[in-house]
Amino acid sequence: MQYNKSFGILQVSQLVNLLWGSPMLPRLLAEDSPIGKALTYDEISWVLSVIYLGALLGNALLVVFLDKVGPKGILLLGGALTIVSWIFLGLAKSLSVLLIGRVIAGIGNGMSLPCISIYLCEIASKDIRGRLASIPVFIGAFGNLFIFGAGPYLEYTTLIVCCAVFPIIFLVSFSFMPKSPYFLIRKGKRRDAERSLMRLLGTKSKSEVEDKLREVEETIEHDIGNLTLMQSLLLPNFRKSLLIVFVAHNILIFCGLAFLSSYLQVILDSGSISLSKELASVFWGFLQIPAVMLSALLVDKFGRRSLFCVSSLGAGVALILEGGYIYLQGVVNLESVSFLPVLCLSLYVFFISLGVFHLPFILIGELFATSTKKVGTFVISCYSSIIVFAYIKTFGSIINSWGLYSICWFFGGVCFCGVLFSLLMLPETTGKSFNEIQSNLSSTTKNSSHSHKDDFEMKNVL
User: Fold this and answer.
1) 285 and 301 in contact (C-beta within 8 Å)?
2) Cα distance between residue 295 and residue 362, in whole Å
3) What is the pLDDT of residues 126-181, one digit of tens each?
4) Annotated domain spans of the chain
5) Of 356, 336, 338, 450, residue with least CA distance to 411
6) Which CATH superfamily, name and number, covers 224-462?
7) What is the maximum span of the chain, computed from C-alpha positions, in angstroms?
8) How confident is the model at residue 460 (pLDDT cuts 50, 70, 90)?
9) What is the Cα–Cα distance from 65 to 60, expressed in whole angstroms?
10) Closest CA to 3 of 266, 291, 199, 271
């Protein structure tokens, strides 16, 4: 039950939302545009990026409704909004309707994507949390293949109908999933939480369920209520968790994945080997599948730190070599190693998908205490949405100023920062309960007892 594939279907439906603009861009620019008007490049940039502004609103709605309807309710609502967004895109005959559809898609993404890790971490046993959280990413990789492989060949309306099928499948299948036992205990529904755990654990053993139920109740008992951002910042554990997750997400944002995905063919054309845009995109998406599959097998065996370190190191080396090739090709004859751009990009997408691509989202669900998870998720999600919006809207022009080799070296440098981060800053959460993770965070502060005193004083304040 814990390996239900519904999460993967949701991941696919939200990823095709984000990637939909790539195969649609040439059609929307054409005179026979499906919306009845050829868009300008500036208008296209809004179509591609406005989804992240919608995600900001979705992040806010997540905070408002998470405690009211729980993670499962949020995920169902996000799936429903995704269906609505495809309806708007399918019926769009003007830029304004197209933008409304993209904003609604962003709201759905902003609500559901951060909530996936929250729900998964709350329903999963500590021994398989990382493996379970890798399933949506693995299935989501097939979404990349679909949108890049089939998108250029399907008609506008046909592609939208196909994309809308994914959230419909998710709503039907996920409706039968149990609610989070943590949410049910917080609502005082112990009997419902017990039934939920029976389904999640796949057992009717009273002792096994009671042990897990006591672990959930113990975690809830250590909570100090729902806190505001300012109240949360008074807690040492929250400040440290926020810093760790913040750094992890910055490495993900600036490791170059979004940029290199957009400029893949340009980089491939820098060598004498040239692939069609469609084939290059499919190749790029395909390499994520074995990497994520391997990650799912290793993440709970070797831990988050080791995987993040290897992922960052491999991706960094590949990008430095890629930048070196691009820099030297105008100086010396590199015909004998013309395969290098393809090889380096292949290694890059493999290594980045091994850990950096999805581990930051797992950290959101694991590092924040239950009482601060909502605030922490909101802060990180809003920051990421704003940065990625600006990234997509402006970064294309920077390549002309910096040069492609400088871009690759910059991204490679960020990946090497990920190596240092994993070795010096990232705590190991593999196989630990939420209480154990919080205890470990407390023990690394200057005075662990002072942290508990802060919690006690905060309770009195509240």
Assistant:
1) no
2) 13
3) 777 767 777 777 777 788 788 877 887 889 999 999 999 999 988 988 888 889 99
4) 1-177, 224-462
5) 356
6) MFS general substrate transporter like domains (1.20.1250.20)
7) 72
8) very low
9) 9
10) 199
Q: What is the pLDDT of residue 2?
A: 42
Q: Is 427 exposed, middle or buried (0-12, 13-18, 19+ CB in 10 A)?
A: middle
For the chain, give the number of residues. 462
Vertex 415: Cα angle to 53 and 391 (nearest 5): 20
Q: Are 193 and 181 in contact (CB under 8 A)?
A: yes
Decide whether 1-177 matches 224-462 in CATH topology. Answer: yes
- Given a cut of 90, whether residue 102 has pLDDT beyond it is yes
What's the number of CA atoms in the CB half-sphere (13 Å) around residue 116?
34
Residue 125 vs residues 3, 21, 73, 212, 301: alpha-carbon distances, Å: 11, 38, 21, 9, 14
Indicate the DSSP class of residue 337: G
What pLDDT, in 10s, does the model give residues 397-419? Answer: 666 677 888 989 999 999 999 99
> DSSP states of 193-223 as a string?
HHHHHHHHHT---HHHHHHHHHHHHHHHHT-
- Please, are residues 300 and 128 in contact by the beta-carbon 8 Å criterion? yes
* Cβ atoms of 273 and 341 closer than 8 Å: yes
CA distance readout (Å), 208 to 102, 197, 221:
46, 9, 20
Query: Closest Cα partner for 250 from 441, 421, 375?
Result: 421
Of the CATH numbers 3.40.50.12780, 3.20.20.70, 1.20.1250.20, 1.25.10.10, which one belongs to the domain with range 1-177? 1.20.1250.20
Under the phi-then-psi rule, with left for phi > 0, alpha for psi from -120 to 50, and beta for the rest, what region is 92? beta
Per-residue model confidence (pLDDT) at position 123: 80
Q: Is the pLDDT of residue 459 over 90?
A: no
The pLDDT of 189-216, averaged and rounded, is 85
CA distance 342 to 9: 30
